[in-house]
Amino acid sequence: MANRAYITAKVFKWARESAKMTKEIAASKVTVSVEKLNEWETGRSFPTIRQAQNLAKAYKRPFALFFLPDIPNDFQPLQDFRKPGSKELSTSSIFIIREIQQKQAWISEVNEENNENIVPFVGKFSIKDSAIKVAQDILTVLNINPLSYRTNNPILEWIDKAESKGIFISRTSFIHSRLKLDSNEMQGFAIADNYAPFVFINSDDWNAPQLFTLVHELAHIWIAETGISNDLEPSINKGENYNPIELFCNEVAANALMPEEFIKNLDKKAFENAKEVFKNAKTLGVSSFALIIRALNLNLISLNLYKKLKIEADYEYNEFLKREAEKKARQKENEINGGPNYFLLQLNRNSRLFTQTVLDAFRGGYIEPTQASNLLNVKVNKFSKLEAQMYR
Question: How deeply is 344 buried, as exposed, middle or buried, from its count of CB atoms within 10 A (0-12, 13-18, 19+)?
């Protein structure tokens, strides 16, 4: 008979439930019936060591945790700033939140123990301050000019500048190939910590909405409001169903990315049709929808013109989605012959700043190889390949 794992039933059950995983899915991970899983979760029988190890991997928990006498203290759930009625956070979202919390807790503790200076702009403002003032401070601190980006992909410039100031930026859309993130569920979140502020961006979208999400989450850092966000970008309706903190952070992002003076000085033909709108939106790194909402809120276009442009923008966006679907289909064909660059994906997921910090600590002998590997999701003997991606 295979060796049994004499796990603590209530801890075993909690591990599954905290992963937001159904009994059916959990049972399928070890090819047993739901009834058998029920037996393990109620202490009427025990899984084999191999079965328990496989479930620990599925729940993304240490195997040793199953043997604790009681349910351990876990990371506190992030404040949920999402609109009422938003999709319940799934296993994918729970896993990425927990992963980022683990990374953030580690680096924050390291920085505090090393007597590093606190990050000065965390909590520098509050929701009572002017959104324009907060937006300007973000641009000043990060040394960014939204009217003169140095790249055709502004989000990369924002990430580089933010990380140069000590903000860790993680960006991914997957846990692994069978567990993807849904942007309708969560677009991003921020952990406003004095020693290690962390921002996560769900990359399950194109770059313009991601950029707005990034700046929105930076606003969360500037007002020290940790939490999860979704359904972002500017809105006509400024009150209904929106948390006031989300409205404020949206306003900050709109002012940072689409400065009022610039929008008001655009040529009159800038809002003649969807093509003109798209051209100007692309310059700013935002979506057409964000730009026409901004113009409407600044009373530069009428509601009727907004509705007309929105219909055109929706059509253009749907055409864009078709082109993206075709591009992804081609990428999928290429993946069969080699796949996406695993190390680049992990680099973006970990944050470049976090990756370099862990590698430095590992090379300096301050952390064990196993801990470094766990923090970076990469085997130690592959660290050189991961590091090589940082300089390309």
Answer: middle
Q: Decide: 146 and 284 in contact? Cβ < 8 Å.
A: yes
Specify burial of residue 210 (Cβ count, 10 A radius: 0-12, 13-18, 19+).
buried
H or E element in which residue 175 lies: strand 174-176
Question: Tens digit of pLDDT for each residue in 212-249?
Answer: 999 999 999 999 999 999 876 656 555 556 789 999 99
Token pair for 77: 């759930």
Q: What is the pLDDT of residues 310-326, one digit of tens each?
A: 898 888 777 777 876 77
Residue 229 DSSP SS3: strand
Query: Could you give all domains of the chain from N- to C-terminal order, each with its CATH number?
Result: 9-67 (1.10.260.40), 75-257 (no CATH), 259-340 (no CATH), 342-391 (no CATH)
SS3 content of the chain, % helix, strand, coil (to 5): 55, 5, 35
Q: What is the predicted pLDDT for the residue at 336? A: 46
pTM over 0.70: yes
